[in-house]
Amino acid sequence: MTHKLLLLPGDGIGPEVMAEAEKTLRALKEIGIASFETERDLVGGCAYDAHKVAITEDAMRRAEEADAVLFGAVGGPKWDKVGYDVRPEAGLLRLRKDLGLFANIRPAICYPALADASSLKREVVEGLDIVILRELTGGVYFGEPKEIVTLENGDKRAVDTQVYTTPEIERIARVAFELARKRRNKVTSSDKRNVMKSGVLWTNTVNALHQAEYADVKLEHQLADALGMQLVRWPKQFDVIVTDNLFGDMLSDVAAMLTGSLGMLPSASLGAEDKKSKKRKALYEPVHGSAPDIAGKGLANPIAMIGSLAMCLRYSFGLGEAADALEKAVANVLASGLRTKDIAAPGANAIGTTGMGDAVVTELRRTLK
Ligand code: IPM
Ligand code: MN
To answer: How far apart are the first and last CA of the chain?
Structure first.
């Protein structure tokens, strides 16, 4: 069986880390795990430079047709002044919305070898294994109206709209409960019900679904501000955290630093299961951005991208064992002491992007052979 992948490397360090994912794909093919057919296209600033849009209709069609999309990163100072509708991020947001990728899974795992790379104390983060499940196609990211208008007196007024419906909350909560059942059976739901109506509906809907279908899962609620505090105080209290689009964006960056570096966090964005084919539309991307400051220097950490590929093997291609092997290879390489600059101790030796990719692939071949 051949798996069809669309590669969208994007801007900044995107192409550099994507090259390491491709290296990994070639190795998996050579070892005989599976065969992959890859296409590539532009997204973000590079798409704007070539076509004056953040993603073309043609690229959207290819994304719809692929079994999965691998995404690098978008954006950079070069495009700071382009129109709002064609800014690099618009390409990513359109992919999420049009493919219906409502469930964004962001695992935060702290490898023991990296506990000292975190800015938190070793005992706080060592062995951490939590998932932030972020609602990805609703909330204030897409709510209408979304505008800046000029008032009669010449002042300006900006509006973003936070909006959620019960089905939107229910389907993401369902993913949270299902995920938790396969893990440590605990869900923490987060919103701001003390000030937001959408938070009240969020809490009530999660509670109702819990009572009706998932009473065996331990459920608790934490307000989003308090959850941010608890994440840096004692993150190991969590298993699956489910929250809305905006809080999930912020909290997943916080969670990333618990693992040592933003360069470590992979993510999967999944759509609803198609009743007939049982397939889900899916996009896999590292949580880090385009990091323009280090782009083109070969310094970027490819582990979040490689980890995103592992999630793709697991969730889209049914290659759970290969995914486990790839994640184990990353853990072994880290345990051996190899580090990119972002996770190295100050002044310690560091390897570059390709060096890290090579090390992971060598270790993968050793374990899978
Ligand atoms: C993320 C990013 C995006 C977001 C940006 C690039 C639009 O920060 O995936 O977390 O805000 O969702
Ligand atoms: Mn973000």
So the answer is: 20
Domain annotation covers residue 114: no
Interaxial angle between packed helices 303-315 and 320-335, expressed in degrees from 0 to 180 and rounded to the nearest 10: 160
Q: How far apart are CA 16 and CA 369, in angstroms?
A: 27
Closest CA to 133 of 44, 214, 227: 227
Q: Which of 192, 239, 315, 342 is catalytic?
A: 192
Q: Which residues contact 73 (CB under 8 A, 6 or more apart)?
A: 10, 11, 12, 13, 14, 17, 44, 285, 286, 288, 289, 290, 291
Q: Ligand 1 in contact with 92 (CB < 6 A)?
A: yes
Confidence of residue 35 (pLDDT cuts 50, 70, 90): very high
Q: What is the mean pLDDT of residues 45-73?
A: 98
pLDDT tens for each residue of 146-191: 999 999 999 999 999 999 999 999 999 999 999 999 999 999 999 9
Which residue, judged by its Cα, is nearest atom 12 of ligand 1? Answer: 249
| pTM of the predicted structure, to 2 decimals | 0.96
As for how many domains the chain has, the answer is: 2
SS3 222: strand
Percent of the chain with pLDDT over 70: 100
Domain boundary, last residue among 204, 234, 258: 258
Task: Assess contact for 268 and 311: CB atoms under 8 A.
Answer: yes
